[in-house]
Amino acid sequence: MPFRLHKPKTRSMLLNALMGFIVGLGFIALFISGVDQPNPEWGRFWMLRPLIVTPVVSGIGGIALLLPDILGLKTPWKRILGIFGGLLLFIIALWMGIILGLDGTLWN
User: Has residue 63 been placed in a domain?
Assistant: First the structure.
């Protein structure tokens, strides 16, 4: 039985990307809201970079949650492993988005 990739539906990809975007925006908003007196070296609009980069990267990571569908996994234990793998990829994408967004400001 050959291994074939399956194309997920566009709607489910967009919904997962939107969900990842919203989760990323929520996490980065929590970090940014805790800054009372930003460092003047960061510039006037320092918060724009994290508010753009983190949600976009985590939105792309949200598509990783479709890993079982993309790989066409049918058996229950393979689907469970695929779900955990996709969740791990999403968490890594969220973490990297936060690092890239806050680099040079809060993440120094």
Answer: yes
